[in-house]
Specification:
By secondary structure, this protein is mainly alpha-helical. It has 6 helices and 3 strands, in the order αβααββααα. The chain is globular, with a radius of gyration of 14 Å. The termini are far apart.
Length: 110
């Protein structure tokens, strides 16, 4: 069972102003701590908990978050929406994030 902090962080990652339509966005630990009124050490522990169950991946060096199942539950509605998301795709592709290959595979499967 997830801790209350993990449930709250999962909801935050799905609904925060930093979230976008592809489930991959920049969200440094410090942003999360500030928005949630906690300290970075607590956020790191909670991110680790969510990472262990595969809910999200967080690249601490770049601050990028990837939610592997995001597009399964939030599919791209149509081609026009897909086109509007391309700047997000390009932005993430240029980050050199450690989980870029996983994210690319997830997107191409859609």
């Amino acid at each position: 069972e997830l801790s209350a902090d993990a449930r709250e962080l999962a909801l935050y990652c799905l609904t925060s102003p930093h979230t976008n339509g592809i489930g991959c966005f920049r969200l440094p630990i410090a942003y999360i701590a500030e928005d949630m009124g906690t300290v970075p050490a607590t956020v790191r522990k909670t991110v680790s908990e969510l990472s262990k169950i595969g809910f999200l991946h967080h690249d601490d060096s770049t601050g990028w978050v990837f939610i592997p199942g995001f597009l399964d539950h939030n599919p791209i509605a149509n081609i026009n929406v897909g086109k509007s998301l391309m700047p997000f795709v390009a932005g993430f592709a240029s980050t050199g994030s450690a989980f870029g290959a996983s994210w690319s595979a997830s997107l191409s499967a859609k």
